[in-house]
Amino acid sequence: MGEKVTVPDIVKKKHQSEKITCLTAYDYSFARILDQAGIDILLVGDSVGCVFQGQANTLPVTLDEMIYHTRAVVRGRKHALVVGDMPFLSYQVSRERAIANAGRLLQEGGAEGVKLEGGLAIQDTIEAIVKIGIPVMGHVGLTPQSVHRFGGYKIQGKSKEQREAIMGDALAVEAAGAFAVVLEGIPLDLAKEISERLTIPTIGIGAGPHCDGQVLVIHDMLGLFDDFTPKFVKRYADIKEVMTGAVKSFIADVRERKFPGAEHSFK
Known about the structure:
Elements: H1 7-15, E1 20-24, H2 28-37, E2 41-44, H3 48-51, H4 63-76, E3 81-85, H5 95-107, E4 113-115, H6 123-131, E5 136-141, H7 147-150, H8 160-175, E6 180-184, H9 188-197, E7 202-205, E8 213-216, H10 218-221, H11 239-255
Parallel strand pairs: 1-2, 1-8, 2-3, 3-4, 4-5, 5-6, 6-7, 7-8
């Protein structure tokens, strides 16, 4: 296993044409496994609201909950960079509150960076957070916290106006001092154009192969969450099937008095 991954390491990867890998994590056990496997970035996503809490979207997730999950993830990692999502209303109300809340994710949660959704509209907020020494990852395109404005989880950047707006958002995030930006749910040619124009790394999710890195929700790629499966998800394993089989075996063993056996008992 290599040395600890830092923010400058992530930026350097783009300039050395090395792809960046990122997965979400919400607890100690998963963080430990992903970290030992060699992931570059562990994103403590507000997607925890959907895959962990069973919410319909990410809006109900609170800052205290994000701090709790970030703290658990940090305990499980030794090498990966940990970035914590700033949840809805933790940074939109005022710059002062945004700075304080970003600080809490680092001070109480142990994160090494924070992620904010939005571009031009929050450029000043990103800049203010960066100015006090907190690394920021941006997020443009399909931004889940704006799900009601979009009318659902719909691909963004199909019209000329949308493309120009998303490009403007990405440039604003870079200008504000972010070290990287997530591009979500946009056409692959637009993601390619943004990735070529920006000097900071782009990390795609449903944005095609031309981004500088890729991120997936861990529950999606392991088949643990199947309420819905976006087109961009590649399922690398079906852990749900494995777990279901194991639980059924346990139930059968207990009912048939096969478990616990002598080897599982004390004298």
